[in-house]
Amino acid sequence: MSLDEEGDVGKEGAMRQAVIAVASLPSTSPLYTDCWTKKLLSYGVESRGIQPVPAEERTDTQFNKIFFLWFSLNVNILTFAAGTLGPAIFGLGLRDSCLTILFFNIICCAPPAYLATWGPKLGMRQMVISRYSFGYYGIIIPCILNLVNMCGFSILNCILGGQALASAANGNLSWTVGIVVIAIISLLVSFCGYEVLNWYEKVTWVPVLITFIIALGVGGKHLFNPPPVEPETAADVLGFAGILAGFAITFSGLSSDFTTYYRSDVSRWRIFGYSFAGLLLSIVTLQCLGAAVVIAAPSIPAWEQGYAGGNIGGLLEAMVRPTGGFGKFLAVLLSLSVAGNIAGTFYSISLNIQIFIPPLVVVPRYVFSLVATAIVIPISIVGAHRFYDTITNFLGLIGYWASAFIAIIILEHLVIRHNNPAEYDLHDWDAPRRLPSGIAALAAGIASFGLVIPCMSQVWFTGPIAKTTGDIGFEVAFGVSAVLYLPFRLLEIRILGHV
């Protein structure tokens, strides 16, 4: 190593230690002169951003919290709405909708559950870990896509929550006001951070699940004997599968964000099992219910009226209306169900902003929850009346990049680093020169789209291969990225001389 390189490394190390020192200062430090900041820290508000959690601070042993977090994140009306797309957009019958939901979610829930196991072993957030594949600067591109993904989900959730809240108020409350209410509740939870978020997610799913059960009990008699449909084609099934992939697989970009405080000696299988069960049970159950309800809606005048214009909130309100005034209360609970998902997403957005703009690592994490809210509210209001177009286009697109991303970071972990956490030098998390260049990862991901584009089927474009096979873009993105990454990465290591 040259003297110049040694000097650069020394500067990087000094800067890193300074950043960590500032981020981990106790509230009594002279640097925290602001009384407001001291008070927030004393109330347990988490200020730590993307700085790794040292092994001695990974002390949380309530490992079942990750089950409740994933379960609560998905027991909401957006999950229900995603299930309606099979019949409403692709014309699938109930049987084929439910089979597609089951089998593709088994596949797509596995990656985020697996990546959640990395948090306790490394103490790093998901996009920080991904720097060990994409590099310090290269990860900015996946990070931008992940931010778009998370903001998009938050917008969809705000729209649905606002619709449901307005429906419960019999038109006395606008969708705009409903959206603002939902966003502010989510902000309060995400602002507080890890402890409050986990507490909220551990309890908030209970009334929501009870509400769905009551809705099923009241309207379940209409879900039997669904009307016959035209025979499904492979293109319809794969198109719906691509939507489902965009829903579940994109949790991979934030998986370990919620497990970095767990004890490092926890069994990987335990974290995987809790995570996989939390994701699969909630997503499959509510998506199948959504498919069944939207198929039955045209035969029930009240449901059809509530559902007019693709108003999922109005449809759910119509389902619980027979319970009288209690139904309005249930509709309010359903509207608030999205807050858990938005809060968890805002939490990860606040971390990803620090990856996107590295100098912001010295800013307390909770500040960026405010930024996320300021972005999501106006876009939700603007897009509120085009929900089905929005969700179909959005979920159909985001599965592609997420598949390529997952293939690359999993191969890096399993093959290049031999599934061994010890092969990650945790001191390199913010040292650009000691991390991979990211060229191999970016090249593999970008090159895969040479084949992904002909295999995608969207409203605005259908590739020549997709015209025959249906949308197989997310499967191709995973496979091609995996094939390209290993030779690219091995060449990168040979040229640079380090992993």
From TrEMBL:
UniProt cross-references to InterPro entries, sorted A to Z: Pur-cyt_permease (IPR001248), Pur-cyt_permease_Fcy2/21/22 (IPR026030)
Gene3D superfamilies (UniProt xref): Hydantoin permease
GO CC terms, sorted: plasma membrane
Matching Pfam families: Transp_cyt_pur (PF02133)
Membrane topology classification: Multi-pass membrane protein
GO molecular function, one term: transmembrane transporter activity
Entry keyword annotation includes Phosphoprotein: yes
The entry's keywords: Membrane, Phosphoprotein, Transmembrane, Transmembrane helix, Transport
Transmembrane segments: 67-90, 102-122, 134-155, 175-197, 204-225, 237-259, 271-297, 329-353, 365-388, 394-416, 437-460, 472-491
Protein family: Belongs to the purine-cytosine permease (2.A.39) family.
Protein name in UniProt: Purine-cytosine permease
